[in-house]
Specification:
Blueprint: E1 5-6, E2 13-14, H1 30-45, H2 49-61, H3 68-83, H4 95-98, H5 102-126, H6 131-148, H7 150-173, E3 182-184, E4 188-190, H8 200-228, H9 231-247, H10 255-259, H11 265-282, H12 286-298, H13 309-325
Antiparallel strand pairs: 1-2, 3-4
Helix pairs in contact: 1-2, 2-3, 6-7, 7-8, 7-9, 8-9, 8-13, 9-13, 11-12, 11-13
Length: 338
């Protein structure tokens, strides 16, 4: 039959989905598993934890459930996932640049800024090479074009795209395979995970990454407004901020709900207090929805007893930054969420 294979250990005939030979217990993908283990070890040695996690997650798909090997690799994935956020030691400024004082320090910093811009810029463009992403973006652009005209529609769709690529970047960081962004005209966009998340920290970081990248897109639009004075850029910045704030509502599978997954009850209470202050400061009614979701989460059982201080800071920081963008005045432009 199609898809059948022969066991390398005992020559038994195996179905396409068999992971271990029922006769001799040999792992069907033994050779590939050994190669994945080698790649993971090399990646971990050079502190490329994302690549190591990618290899180990692939290995999990090739192992039968309830085996010691699978349990050991799952534990390894959890361990490496916790090391993803560890920052490598900063390289010292070369002596010849240090001798130049402030000028040398600026040159050294600009090197990393340029590298960051080029790397992230290349990654952002990567999604546009996927025909399904490009086609669904064009369809969404057509819907919003009819509503607001093409300049605003283009900026709004690009803001959503950058938001979704933030999720993709975070998933890659944890070695998790996922689809490129897909747009649903009139409803938004999404990224489909092709592998499971291992910890609540992973879930929280992947969730909050979208609004963080969306904040970057909104700030770029606002920068263009300051440079050109064109009201359309202020409208895009403010609408992008409103869109990201909506995603920060801490309910269901919205980004805010996933960000709250790693917070203790005490931290959720602190987040709710921060949202309340933002509501008082801005008068934006959307914060009422965020506050309602946060209060609801305060009465739910927390998934962890360990405080996630970084997660709380991420949520409050991105929520507050978007709240500040709502103060942007848009001369003569009526955009959604304004």
């Amino acid at each position: 039959m199609s898809g059948e294979r022969i066991c390398a250990g005992c020559a038994a005939v195996l179905s396409a989905r068999t992971l271990a030979c029922p006769s001799c217990a040999r792992l069907v993908h033994q050779t590939e598993l050994e190669e994945l283990a080698r790649r993971a070890g090399e990646a971990e040695a050079r502190q490329d934890f994302g690549a190591a996690l990618e290899a180990w997650r692939r290995a999990l798909e090739l192992l039968p459930p309830s085996t010691r090997q699978r349990a050991a690799i799952q534990a390894k994935v959890v361990e490496l996932s916790g090391r993803v956020e560890s920052k490598p030691a900063k390289k010292p400024v070369p002596k010849w640049l240090a001798s130049m004082g402030v000028v040398g320090a600026l040159v050294w910093k600009s090197k990393f800024v340029l590298a960051f811009v080029l790397t992230k810029g290349k990654f952002v463009l990567l999604g546009l090479t996927k025909w399904k992403t490009a086609l669904s973006m064009l369809l969404s652009l057509g819907v919003y074009w009819n509503l607001w005209g093409w300049p605003f529609a283009l900026g709004f769709v690009l803001s959503m795209y950058v938001h979704e690529m933030g999720h993709v970047a975070a998933l890659r960081r944890y070695g998790i395979r996922a689809s490129a962004p897909m747009f649903i005209p009139g409803f938004g966009a999404f990224v489909r995970l092709e592998q499971h998340l291992a910890t609540v920290i992973e879930d929280a970081r992947v969730g909050i990454a979208g609004p963080w990248w969306g904040l970057g897109a909104a700030l770029v639009a606002y920068g263009l407004f300051l440079a050109t004075g064109a009201p359309i850029y202020a409208g895009i910045a403010r609408a992008g901020a409103w869109l990201n704030l909506f995603n920060l509502v801490p309910i269901w599978q919205l980004d805010g709900g996933r960000a709250f997954a790693s917070l203790t009850r005490k931290q959720r209470t602190l987040a709710a207090a921060g949202i309340g202050l933002a509501w008082l400061a801005t008068g934006e009614t959307l914060f009422v929805l965020l506050l309602g979701g946060a209060v609801y989460q305060c009465f739910r059982a927390a998934q962890t007893a360990e405080p996630d201080r970084r997660g709380l800071a991420y949520y409050l920081g991105v929520m507050g930054a978007h709240g500040a963008l709502l103060f942007v005045q848009v001369p003569g432009v009526n955009a959604p969420g304004l």
